[in-house]
Amino acid sequence: MMRGIPVISRRQALISMAAATSLAACNQSSGRDLLSADSHPEEYPTVQAVKEMGRLLNERSGGRLRIKMYAGGQLGSERDTLEITSFGGLDLNRVNLAPLNSIEPLTTIPALPFLFSSTSHMRTALDGPAGDRILDSLAPHDLIGLCFYDSGERSFYNTRKPILSPDDMAGMKIRVPNSDLYVAMIKALGADATPMSLGEVYQALVQGVIDGAENNWPSFESGRHFEAAPFYSLTRHIIAPEVLVMSASRWRKLSDSDKTLVQQSARDSVPFMRKLWDERVAESREKIIAAGVSVNEVADLGAFQQKMRPVWDRFVRTDTQKEIVAEIEALRPDA
Ligand code: GTR
User: Fold this and answer.
1) 107 lines ligand 1 (CB under 6 A)
2) CA-based diameter of the chain, in Å?
């Protein structure tokens, strides 16, 4: 995450992108680097997956197409890099779906609390037509949705005490990504939502600006949030994926055969990512438990589900959204 790495302003990022872009253009005879951003550090599975895509692309294009990765939030928050990508300053960007929620309603679907019953349900649903419809919905926003990556199960962590019921969260200040859906979900639980970017969370916990946040095992560990917030309560309320997007204007500049290479290499990096992800979840879990963090199961998840249900009514409004939600629910193993 961004701790220890200077975060540059969006303006500086744009300037450096413009410089990098013109350099890439000059080097066209020797091939082309697709510039890619990620908020996670080098060893995180999302970064490694995009690098694997780059390896495939390089191999399949005979060295003409490569990926140059800017990891660790070097180019700013996910909201910033998405903006840069949509107007063509970057080729690729790996983000969570959350920062896309305000621009495309279909992206809110996978973040509906308790929609997916497990990671395997999420994988099955998003590998099929429901996933394709969500990826395709990004095109009018100048983004090409290439593939989804895993992001595991999100649960609450805080600086004060184990959470066993929604009442334990009353009045707590909980950080959420910049998404109205996440804000509504926290409010529905009776807590206060504080939207901020991932890179700011550690300091905010240490300084007491927030009492807690919610995320998966690897992000809780990688950002060292567990050192500041030693209570992790396994609500597993959201299993929304990550997404890899490409700038539509950069995409249009590719030949048809290169478009196929890019799309196929992205899709082929997914099984690689899933394997790394499963390993990383186990490692992060072990590290967090060894550090003495109090980890608790939540027996009555029904209480959370019930409180969060109004979020569905507020965010699932169009017929298309309803159709996709029904399609995903029908794929629940217990349906
Ligand atoms: C992580 C995800 C990031 C970011 C982050 C957050 O799980 O990988 O892309 O969305 O959560 O909470 O901001």
Assistant:
1) no
2) 62
113 C-beta closer than 6 A to ligand 1: no
Q: How far is CA 226 from the centre of its chain?
A: 19
Top mutation candidate among 219, 225, 236, 280 for ligand 1, by most atoms within 8 Å of CB: 219
Residue 161 makes CB contacts below 8 A (sequence gap 6+) with 168, 231
Q: Are the CB atoms for 71 and 38 separated by under 8 Å?
A: yes
pLDDT tens for 128-178 read 999 999 999 999 999 999 999 999 999 999 999 999 999 999 999 999 999
- State phi, psi for 95 to the nearest 5 degrees: -135, 170
Rounded CA-CA distance 201/236 in Å is: 20
CATH number, domain at 205? 3.40.190.170
Residues 324 and 109: their CA atoms lie apart, in Å, by: 8
Q: Is residue 306 part of a domain?
A: yes
pTM > 0.90: yes
Residue 231: domain span: 154-239+283-330
